[in-house]
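DATA CLASS: polypeptide
GOAL: derive structure tokens

***
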Amino acid sequence: MNRKYIFLDIDGTLYSVAQGGIPASAEQAIFAARHNGHKIFLCTGRSLAEIVSYLDYKCDGFIMGAGAMVYAERKRIFDHPIPPDDVTEFRQLLDGMGLGYSLEGSAGAYCSPAGYEKLLWYFSGGSKDRSVQIANAEKNCTYPVSYGDEASDHIYKICAFGDSWEPKYPELEKRLKKPYILTQSMNLPDDHFCIGEITNGTINKGTGIGHVLSYYGGSVEDTIGIGDSSNDIPMFRAVHHAIAMGNATPVTKEAADWVTADIGSHGILIAFLHENLITVEQYDEILEALARQEGSQK
């Protein structure tokens, strides 16, 4: 197999809210693809702190903060935080609009009270036990903090949390100064959960991919991107073949070249077989092993 560079979003692509983790079939697919000589990169909106549980993950690098920080082979090859004065302005703006938020940095994700409550639900894995929710949030370096606690850290992205997209997020978008943009990264109206990401509009997952390819001397023709939300569209535009998860938003599916199954229905495994990143034999072995495991647990 010719070496491919595969860029995988985390939330909604690898990380399942329903399962509170990564589906086993996705983990096995990644292991098999790397065994076949392909390079795997986690390409996420999360900051360095929020991927601490993934740092020992079997992959070849990370694109974090929606492109604001890039690692390859454990080397930081790009770094562009938001200036502190801009962070202060955004914090005041979001407070004034009544939106919860998280300031996502290298050492932690610093949450307003409302933002923290939203992330407790997100990381809960379906548990209603608050102690479990807090423990899960801490595993992702997500904390409730007061003003100024983030001052010693670099902030790479800001997430604004709400119950519904209308009417606050369109108003927030109008009030952002250049070069900053607002991207809808998640909208779950039934769960009263929305995320709008504030990022530097000149930096995105696609520019992060460019840094990775420059580092390796790789070709765009050998790239594949897999994602589920609007912040993955710049990634789709930067790769040769773009794949949307079955649970992706309509606009993300429209931007993709192909749509795989849902995250909970072996979406990554199926995509890897479709792209010839794994063999039919490996695909069958993974499904058989999962079936045996499920049988032993009954």
Remarks:
- The mean pLDDT is 93.
